[in-house]
Specification:
The chain has 263 residues and is of the alpha+beta class. It is built from seven helices and eleven strands.
Length: 263
């Protein structure tokens, strides 16, 4: 399933099949200009006020309370953090020490979840039956290790979700057109994901890892119906004017965010 992106650069990316879920708010932020404009991560430089302002703007557009955002310290793991009302607002408006996790899940209303990216894959999960949501940060390490499967398992264990009921969106991230990998990464991908997600690289000497296909397959292994999974198909390196990209800009780049919440 192909995702539907907002046409305006000032509007968040949305998945068409999630728009009709009652009480759901979701969106993927964009950059808002050159440099760090639109950056939503406190780890990108000392200007806390600009990060708070960017979070507030994007939350207003998506329709969630910026003071309620819950964030984790992402470490390319398979750890999933269960977020309750007690954690609401943790790390939202001030930089603080955060728990380490690469996926967040909740069934609480008005507890928006935020994960941040700059080429890694945002994966949004929604259970419209049991009323629960999750967001996962799936870089190559997390994809190979199974962070998406861990998020689905957490929704099942904590909230009684049935994988067949879940809807998923795979957001903008680096595409197979631009994600060449070295032999060690390729070997790990081959072992965990199989050969179908490795493509000939553009230069011809190294393979490219198709993170989109790998996460689509992971979701299907976890029990999701293929028609319930939408993929943006937007490469962050190719569309660096819209999204921050580590491959395009290096370590000084900002980060964009994926936000999901129940209202």
């Amino acid at each position: 399933m192909q995702a539907l992106s907002a046409t305006s650069e000032q509007q968040p990316f949305e998945f068409a099949h999630l728009r009709g879920v009652p009480g759901l708010r979701h969106g993927i932020t964009r950059r808002e200009g050159p440099g760090l404009a639109g950056n939503v991560a406190f780890t990108r430089g000392p200007d806390v006020a600009s990060v708070v302002a960017a979070r507030q703007r994007w939350c207003q557009r998506i329709g969630v309370d910026p003071a309620g955002l819950d964030v984790a310290r992402q470490i390319h793991s398979v750890a999933v953090e269960r977020v309750t009302r007690r954690e609401r607002g943790r790390g939202a408006l001030v930089p603080i020490a955060l728990p380490e996790a690469d996926a967040l899940a909740t069934d609480e209303p008005d507890v928006p979840l935020l994960a941040i990216f700059a080429d890694c894959v945002p994966v949004v999960l929604v259970d419209p039956v049991r009323r629960a949501v999750a967001v996962a940060h799936a870089g190559w390490r997390g994809t190979v290790a199974g962070v998406v499967e861990a998020a689905v398992a957490a929704l099942t264990a904590w909230y009684g979700s049935q994988p067949a009921d879940l809807l998923a969106g795979i957001g903008p991230s680096i595409g197979p057109c631009c994600y060449e990998v070295g032999p060690e990464v390729a070997a790990a991908v081959l072992t965990r994901c199989g050969p179908t997600v490795l493509r000939p690289g553009p230069a011809g000497d190294r393979p490219a890892f198709d993170l989109w296909a790998a996460n689509q397959q992971a979701l299907q292994r976890a029990g999701l119906a293929v028609e319930h999974v939408a993929t943006a198909g937007v490469c962050t390196r190719c569309h660096n004017h819209l999204y921050f990209s580590h491959r395009a800009e290096g370590p000084q780049r900002g980060l964009f965010g994926a936000i999901v919440a129940l209202s």
